[in-house]
Structure prediction request, 980 residues.
Amino acid sequence: MTDKQAAIIGGGVIGGGWAARFALNGWQVNLFDPDPEAERKIREVMQNARASLPLLADKSLPKEGRLVICTRLEEAVRDALWIQESIPEQLAIKQSAFADIQAACRPDAVLASSTSGFRPAQLRDGALRPDQIIVAHPYNPVYLLPAVELVGGTDNPAILTAEQILKDIGMKPVTLRQEIDAHVGDRLLEALWREALWLVKDDVATTAEIDEIISYSFGLRWAQMGLFETYRVAGGEAGMRHFMAQFGPALAWPWTRLMDVPELDEALIEKIARQSDAQSGHYSIRELEAIRDKNLVGFLKVLKDHKWGAGKVYSDWLKTAPLPEQTEKESWQPETPFVRHRTEVLPAWIDYNGHMTEFRYLQVMSDSADCLLSYLGLSAAYVGAGYSIYTVETHIRHLAEAKPGEYITVSTQILYADEKKIRLWHSLKTDAGIEVATGEQMWLHVDMKAGRAVAMRQPLRDRVLGLYEAHRGLGVPEGAGRHIGQKQAG
Amino acid sequence: MTDKQAAIIGGGVIGGGWAARFALNGWQVNLFDPDPEAERKIREVMQNARASLPLLADKSLPKEGRLVICTRLEEAVRDALWIQESIPEQLAIKQSAFADIQAACRPDAVLASSTSGFRPAQLRDGALRPDQIIVAHPYNPVYLLPAVELVGGTDNPAILTAEQILKDIGMKPVTLRQEIDAHVGDRLLEALWREALWLVKDDVATTAEIDEIISYSFGLRWAQMGLFETYRVAGGEAGMRHFMAQFGPALAWPWTRLMDVPELDEALIEKIARQSDAQSGHYSIRELEAIRDKNLVGFLKVLKDHKWGAGKVYSDWLKTAPLPEQTEKESWQPETPFVRHRTEVLPAWIDYNGHMTEFRYLQVMSDSADCLLSYLGLSAAYVGAGYSIYTVETHIRHLAEAKPGEYITVSTQILYADEKKIRLWHSLKTDAGIEVATGEQMWLHVDMKAGRAVAMRQPLRDRVLGLYEAHRGLGVPEGAGRHIGQKQAG
Prediction:
């Protein structure tokens, strides 16, 4: 039994997205859904998630958690720390589910509803422990989009626990200050949706034309700044107040049809369904999902590289995500090469030839080097004092191809060291023992301010020289000291 | 005098964006704006455009058109094929400007207004040639976002001409079927804006929290699919009709505050301005613009790679964009090193020492190598036939540090080639001309199935050997052929 257990009550697209989020973060997921199709559906969503979320990671994610299909609700919730309800939007059904869950679950578990519309006060009506029930409203696809609206009191312990757990699984909790029907996101969406229905009904534009206008203009803006920040920029140096003054009068103009609710009669439903078929009917839903996920991964990578917006959620998450379990750490003796870094060959590392692209080999060596430097005592404080170690030269030999899904372990040896200089050797092997690459590097210890090589300070110096002494017995590997194009020995 | 002349009446952010669009597509731009600050403002916007739009192009853009500052309206419009009005939103002022313009311009010119709110019928009232006047409503930043709403009759010749010209300058015209106040995009925006004002006024969430909810969820969705297509996917295999049936009832629920217009009084303006300062006040507007443009370029590149949505507008545009009279490409002589790849040092590439981390140097070299291979004829079809080029060895020397925000250009030279082997040299320099790194590589041409080196096929072979012949005259760079730790020459 693992401490990290999430219970997913109700599968489908949203429940499946939650399941994938937790499982890819190493949580055991207990699914309860009486629908005989639930397991198939949830496995399809998880397949989509496995093909996309890991593309955002520069390192291996934790080992995927188990999916446990439960035939009884109690079994699913009993040991769960997080219980997510994603069943149909009918208040009585939800309240009854919460009664059953609270009769069986831990009192300290987070009990969250994915509801789009109901307020916590409605969900809690008649509950055993009302405060335990909160709203955690996500967005589809849950395994890629980080936003979650939390509703249920800003100082409620269940909300505080939920905030921490959501951050741990790479999501962005936004806790609302008041509870209102439909929270924040769906209110904004509904406002826009109503206006869009009028535009179609009145034949101003088709669904395809409205979608083009959205996604070729403010959709691109809102993927990285929201409504207010975008308008702040539009207002220019004169600022937000100036912008508001300009925009203000429009509120009194009779522009929108907002004051009037369009009747969603059969004719309008038929019109929209027909236009939507003309717009997107040549793709299956599976194809559209795959296109959507590729685009979202691409956007999130752009934002992650710029450490901005939704991308920052992922860069922060990757900093703190638990590493897969390591086994070799404990048993290492300094007389043998340093082996601390093992990594999966990630899907994003593959080039058009179908194997790991060249610069990723250096990345893997570099990650092992960072483990070694940390072991030797190159701490943040050491760097903060103005000293560090720079790589001045690297020589890589590619000996075999690493393929997606394989694991590579790096073995690192000190070939030479003096008080200013370290020469080292990396050997990259797959789990099958095939050496895919070697790397030889020259490092210099530098005074960063002065911009020149200086003697290492303690304790780094003694540790480096000590490890070099220990490694002298290992001999010089074949391939060391070679230049480009030099013939193979033997 | 060139045939392609655009007159920009009214500078500012929108006029400046139009000016940049036309100029970067090789059009002469005549600016008329009585504001003495207009030229400075427009040059600032053009500077932003030059730093972003060309990053989307795989080929050189046409030579930038001249910017001509006109002191008289007649001078600006006389020979223009496109006249864009972006003056303040006051109907009488606009009507008067159109009267002056029509007295001086060509009758076959497109006379377009950037108005957010007015209908063509209002703008045309009392005009000399009413049909010549249309609405072409763009989105800020105009030099990156492709959407333009065209209003003024679907079979009006001015609209048909406008559609063609907008496509030619990399934009996406969407012609509305009916004219209504505020067109389509601003109606949708206004609906959402009103609801957002209520949320702030009622203390449900702050401007920052609302922006997070938007940009970490449906903002990312709408950058690539619009409202209707997103809901179609959410509806699953059951389709749009099923989704509509589910969503329908919400229209009758008393969720949104849409039926009621919030009063934009001093207290609400002050509240929003204060929250916006807390949210974004630590960035200047210039900084926010730069962040926005980098993110937009990144998104558009992702979409272009997938030939999807707004990115498809750019891939189509690049296919048809007129070739520059004298491009860098065409002027490149094989007797000089190959220079095609220039990249920003991204924030995510920085290590704990504060400069670009080692493996990113190899990534930059590798990206230049991919440009070279593509130039030499290593196509997808070539690889598909089972042949490719593998790197077998790389030697990198780090000579100086590249810092975040700097740009690096790679210059690549063939040191040696025969029918199976290529040895090459990369030099990485900053815009200041500092060589930050060099790379020497050995490539082998392989039969991927057989897993061994074989002679290159045509046309790759002749092109490689031809470029090697051309590069022989360049000599061997200092640093080539060195092994790790070898003393510097001289």
